[in-house]
Amino acid sequence: MKVLVAVKRVVDYNVKIRVKADKTGVDLANVKMSMNPFDEIAVEEGLRLREAGVATEVVAMSVGPQAAQETLRTALAMGADRGILVKTDETVEPLGVAKLMKAVAEEEKPDLIIVGKQAIDDDSNQTGQMLAALLGWSQGTFASEVNLDGGTAKVTREVDGGLQTIELKMPAVVTTDLRLNEPRYASLPNIMKAKKKPIDEKTPEDLGVDISPRLKTLKVEEPAKREAGVRVESVAELVDKLKNEAGVI
């Protein structure tokens, strides 16, 4: 069984984001980039399936500029067998990524596709669902547990009311939640080995996919700074302020 996992190059979660002076986007100059944390979980799950003897190959793919090859190398250092980079310098929206992944899936013919439920840069939470719709595959989103048995997959999902377990017919698309697993660290020997693992480079044109944006960003602003609180002397005063000043009751 072949597993395809998607990884995205994003601003590291420890970095404090700065908005450009002209408010056209986020300033990425000299900013540390890393693999999207949810995608690390996706890679780890694929590797665990291979180690359990369920999967035979784990293929990592990414969409982005040449620098995204570093993110793929991280996935290869974790243990992925090979990588695919769909190279483009354009900003690709979730639908465009889903279309590119569909094209790659049709070439690679994986039995399972695992993606992070969302990327921490745009928080769209759309690619996995769109990909499943385009492929016509079963989907299990927000997975906290995945068990494969022959031609089916049992996925435990985290929903607002608790946990929901569904059974999917393979092939399927699964999106990962935080509690699915704890990603491993890439060891130094594996980092060195990853440099020799193959990365196949393609372009959207090679795959016959139009990634023209459908959305236009008008302005990017930082959230308003939190105002200082006030201390009240009694419950009655608190209720009065909530009612007459805040208007929440």
Automatic annotation (TrEMBL):
Keywords: Electron transport, Transport. The keyword Transport applies. InterPro entries: ET-Flavoprotein_bsu_CS, ETF_a/b_N, ETF_b, ETF_beta_N, Rossmann-like_a/b/a_fold. GO terms for biological process: carboxylic acid catabolic process. Residues 23-211 form the Electron transfer flavoprotein alpha/beta-subunit N-terminal domain. PROSITE patterns: ETF_BETA (PS01065). One of its GO terms (molecular function) is electron transfer activity. It comes from the Bacteria. It holds the Pfam family ETF. Its cofactor is AMP. PANTHER family: ELECTRON TRANSFER FLAVOPROTEIN BETA-SUBUNIT, ELECTRON TRANSFER FLAVOPROTEIN SUBUNIT BETA. Heterodimer of an alpha and a beta subunit. The electron transfer flavoprotein serves as a specific electron acceptor for other dehydrogenases. It transfers the electrons to the main respiratory chain via ETF-ubiquinone oxidoreductase (ETF dehydrogenase). Belongs to the ETF beta-subunit/FixA family. This is Electron transfer flavoprotein subunit beta. It comes from Sneathiella chungangensis.
